[in-house]
Amino acid sequence: MEIYLSHMAVFRVVEKLGLTKAVGAGWLQYFTTVVVVLAGTTVFAVVVKMIIEKVTKVVKIGEQYCAGRKINSK
Length: 74
Known about the structure:
This protein has helices at about 1-15, 25-70. By secondary structure, it is mainly alpha-helical. Helix 1 crosses helix 2 (about 25-70).
């Protein structure tokens, strides 16, 4: 489901930018759209992976910091 959603989101951006109609109509338009959407989805996946890795690293550092402290709960 997530793969479909990322492709659809990238397609909508490409469509709003007018890149789907920039090369005319027909098969050239179709193949251009497919290549641009696949490239955009790949870039999107790499960027999101990097963001998730950084957030995970920050959370682990925070957990280690809190584990070293004694938190008083009353």
